[in-house]
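General statements about sequence and structure are easier to judge against a single worked case. In the encoding step, the backbone of a single protein was reduced to a row of integers, each denoting a local shape. The record that follows shows the chain in one-letter code together with its fold in token form.
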Amino acid sequence: MKTEINHMHNLNVWELVEAPDNSKIIKNKWVYTRKRKSNNEIVFRARLVATGYQQRQFIDYDELYSPTLDIDSLRFLISIGLKRKMNIYTADVTTAYLHADIDKTIFMKQPDGFDDKSGRVCKLKKSIYGLKQSGRMWNEKISQFLNDCDLHTARCNTTIFFNKDLSLIVGVYVDDLILISKNDKIFDEFINKFQSKSNIQLKITKSLDKFLNIEVKYDKSNSIYFSMKDKIIKLANSVGINKENSQMIPIRRSKLLEKDLDQPLFLDINLYQSIIGQISYIARIVRPDVIFAINQLSRFNNEPRLTHFKYALQLVQYLFNTRNLSLKYSSLNYHDNIVGFSDSDFANDVYERRSISGIAIFHNNNLISWKSNMQGESASSVNSAEIFSAFETSILIETFYRIMIEFKIDTKNHKLYSDSAAVIRYSKYGPVTPKTKNLDAKIFNLRDKVIQKNIVAQHVKTEFNIADQFTKFLPKDKFLELRKKLNLVYL
């Protein structure tokens, strides 16, 4: 606590003043955390946090939105760096928010344990943790510092910064930075310049190490492997699973999950939701092989049946059995084209007859994005469902190639693979007869990308469509075959 207060005094976070008449004085509290470092050392931390729930909109704060680097963009930047044999570093800004100014006049009580009993209050000069606008104020400050270091902000993703010759790329996730540099000299020059201009000291790690709680390993070829083995073990142990068995697919089932209204309710909803939440995070970050299964289970979060809980335990067991699987990002030089796989499963949901879209996006043969989700509207035919999925895939491909355009990476003809002949036909010629306005708009949007040679739609046989595993439960042999194509490997 004393270290935190001393740090705040050094950064001139507040000044003590007499409280103005009729002013609102917000409270604060101490939050205690412990963090395990990569060397298993446990660090204890005390942080002073303002009670932002007492703030009043348009008086104590205005805008709140603060962008952060999304996981798909992180994987994309890593793939770009690996392809170009660049070095990858991480940096952490200690007490980042305290470096950002505040945009409103806010008064706060003196913190417990450090009240001088004068009756004065803290007039904040910096964006202390807990204030509603602190994230946005910090984002503006770090963006300004990076721009001052001659880095451009990507127009299509304001959490990505880069220099003119792409010898340095920086991604910002709140107070964590990923830095991708052509060599150590360029990196060192940037760090010196940044620290000089910002007066911020960075904690630098010359590898990805354990960025954003992802366990990271390297091999001799400098390929990178992502996993969450420790998190999987912790989850499994919490539900009594500590031994392997024969479960080699996520869920032993051939049809979509149903409400099973004839089955008893699973009464511990909090436990069910906790399991689903943890698996969803793991699936989103490092385990695409379970994204379809967990999305099926998450549909019953509000009213799970005993059968759903049993399937959830099957999924935990599968993750435990395969806890050594890691998502590989290769440093080999394939190509810069974005490659997307699209698939759909038509109207097999017996309650709403919604179809499921499955999407897998690759760069340099590295998987950078995957999705498995119910479509936003009910498709009226198999072709419509496939077009909805292909359109969503094309939007994702476009998201990445727009970043490449800003990076001045010259690529065209990014690939979109589908096992639907209708998707290939419509992408080239448009609709033969008018359909619904929404469907026509998606077809024409996809066709425009093809005409502009930004995307090439190509047919792929169903057995080779990587996205097929994101739309349905597959037999074991088929599932394992497609899982390999996700670059999930045992370490």
